[in-house]
Write a structure and sequence with these properties.
about 290 residues, alpha+beta, Jelly Rolls, Arc Repressor Mutant, subunit A, 2 domains, four-stranded antiparallel sheet
């Protein structure tokens, strides 16, 4: 991805064509233990979109699904979770999960990969056991870069060799494991650890990019480039994400009104807060609070 794309990491994904691409190779002579057999970009608007992983008659596979806009939902043994923009869902099938477009969500836009093979399924199950089924990709910018690359190559038909496909499939699995096991840039680690804590401690204030740069003793332009490269999004977008995720937690606890929640998260125009929240999560903060 170019630097300009990092300012909004989902913009390049949303430019991909809406497509479902099958990648089957009848001429394959050697068994490959990690292979992407289906990929796609979809915008679901009907509750008919419903995937039940509890079909124990199907062959094992791993599903990776990255949400770009709107909202989906996954039901797991320990409860139900919204699948929001910026979240990556990873599940193995057969499994106990069900994921779908809920009735109160008008749409759910996402890209996806379906992987088969002993190693692909093993890695997917390892991620499930140790990291869960839903993760925030703010900590995994390199994984998003590889995801975009493999989708772009598959959609265009550039990957027409099973061994090249297998290399890409292994690569995205290993990149995610490296980033989530501590090998990548993550909030709370590296050069921005103290800055991120500063943002959390002062979330109710109007914090400018200039102030962030000053906290780091860097010029605004150099700080913006460095932060965007390391964190996978601009300082402004990161702070906006932090405000909205904090707001979602406060609304879920039902202890504060929408207006109080917006103010605590540093957004004092409640109408703007409502528009921003609905654009990101597919429903108003008031409706989310009632649910």
């Amino acid at each position: 991805m170019r630097y300009t794309d990092l300012m909004n990491p989902d913009s390049k994904f949303r430019e991909l064509p809406f497509i479902r691409r099958s990648s089957r190779y009848s001429s394959r002579k050697f068994p490959l233990h990690a292979l992407t057999v289906l990929s796609g970009h979809s915008n679901e608007t009907s509750t008919a979109y419903y995937n039940d992983g509890k079909n124990w008659e199907v062959s094992s596979y791993g599903a990776w699904q990255y949400t770009l806009a709107g909202r989906g939902r996954i039901d797991l043994k320990d409860g139900s979770y919204d699948l929001l923009p910026g979240s990556l869902m990873i599940v193995s099938v057969p499994g106990s999960q069900v994921y779908y477009l809920p009735e109160d969500s008008p749409s759910w836009e996402f890209v996806f990969l379906t992987m088969i093979g002993r190693e692909a399924v093993r890695i997917t199950r390892r991620i499930e056991r140790h990291l869960g089924n839903v993760m925030d990709t703010a900590n995994t910018p390199q994984t998003l870069e590889v995801l975009y690359e493999i989708l772009d190559q598959l959609f265009s038909g550039a990957i027409n060799d099973p061994f090249v496909n297998s290399c890409y499939t292994y690569r995205i699995c290993m990149t995610l494991l490296k980033e989530l096991d501590g090998g990548g840039s993550a909030p709370g680690e590296g050069p921005f650890r103290e800055l991120i804590q500063f943002l959390k401690d002062n979330l109710s204030r109007d914090i400018s990019v200039e102030e962030m740069a000053k906290e780091m003793n860097l010029s605004r332009s150099y700080f913006t480039r460095l932060f965007s490269r390391e964190m996978g999004r601009s300082p402004h977008n990161y702070l906006e994400d932090l405000r909205l995720k904090t707001a979602m937690g406060l609304l879920y606890q039902e202890q504060k009104s929408v207006k109080e929640t917006a103010a605590l998260c540093g957004i004092y125009d409640v109408n703007y807060f409502c528009r921003l929240f609905k654009k990101r999560y597919g429903l108003s903060p008031g409706k989310y609070k009632k649910q």
